[in-house]
Amino acid sequence: MTVLDDRAALRAADPSGMLDIVTGLGAQCHEGYALGLGARPLPEADGITSIAFCGMGGSAIAGDVVAALAAPRLRFPIAVVRTPRLPEFCGPHTLVVASSYSGDTLETLGLFEEAVGRGCRMVALTAGGELARRAEELGIGRVIVPGGYMPRAAFGLLSTGAIGALEAMGIMPPHADEVDEAVAEMTGVIAEAGPDVPSATNPAKELALAIGERVPIVWGADGIGSVAAMRWKSQLNENAKVPSFASALPELDHNEVEGWSAGSGAGFALIALRHPGEDGDVAARFPLSEEIVRASGATVREVSSRGRSEFARLLTLVQFGDLVSTYLGIARGVDPSPIEAIASLKRSLAQA
């Protein structure tokens, strides 16, 4: 028996309850979506020609989700901004979504003030802090989500909160059915791979144990697959405390595959995230590219999405990855919740 199959040991190894948060992702999605739909005041959508979604870390990936889902349905571009300055195109016809779960992320606050100065239309997505205070002070649209989580653990609240707000503005179509489907499919993932399911029949625990001390590399098809891959990568970094890297097909076939030379894959584990909506050419690339990595000495596994909608497919890949990263951290003997290196870096920057 591993620690992953001993319920008492599992709880003791996860004192901050990351597994409880991970398994509650579906409920977060329902709550965040309702909060986004009910957010007031929201700016007028008429005349908007672009969207800039501003954030850092766990607060920014909500923008990646929105961009991947919205891009095929919008007639104007959406950019996710992770830099200290707004792109030059941002102005009165740009909707700027400022996302900071804590409300105190310095880069996001700076982008918020710059957007206000440029006359952009604004929505603040936050649990409080200075961002909520400034948005209220200026009468700016805001989606206020519950506090008490680490930013990465508020993924469901932030992602669906943004989708709900954009739907309320008339920018995105109704997502209620897709949210319901995604939550139902995520419930199915938990039933098969949740903490109470033993490793022998639990695909998430089995994958975490198979990764072991290898460095995980995560691939996904451009679009929702690449967003899921980036989420896996960041969750493996923060929950399992291991180096991890993510790439998207077809781009990686024009550079990364050359690096998987004979013997170079020892010590690596490739996880390819698959879904039925992949472009035909990209789908055909997966087995060929995986074989190059396998020949280099790396292990290769595929993880498949569930559901009919793009949203359900993305969220089920995220749900499974969140479980894998948390199980891997616990199996390695680390508490998944603290982010000591990030906290130390922030302290050093504040003193610089």
Secondary structure: elements and pairs:
Layout: H1 7-13, H2 18-23, H3 25-37, E1 50-54, H4 61-70, E2 78-81, E3 94-100, H5 106-117, E4 121-126, H6 129-138, E5 141-144, H7 155-168, H8 176-193, H9 203-211, E6 215-221, H10 224-240, E7 245-249, H11 256-259, E8 268-274, H12 280-295, E9 299-304, H13 310-331, H14 340-351
Helix pairs in contact: 3-7, 3-8, 4-7, 4-10, 8-13, 9-13, 10-13
Task: Give a short overview.
By secondary structure, the chain is an alpha/beta fold.
Jot down its keywords.
single chain; 14% strand; 352 residues; five-stranded parallel beta sheet; Rossmann fold; four-stranded parallel beta sheet; 9 strands; globular
Describe, in plain words, how this protein is organized in 3D:
This protein is an alpha/beta fold and 352 residues long. Helix content is 48%, strand content 14%. The chain has 14 helices and nine strands. Helix 5 (106-117) links the parallel strand 3 and strand 4 (121-126). Helix 8 packs parallel to helix 13. The chain is globular and about 55 Å long. The N and C termini lie far apart (48 Å).
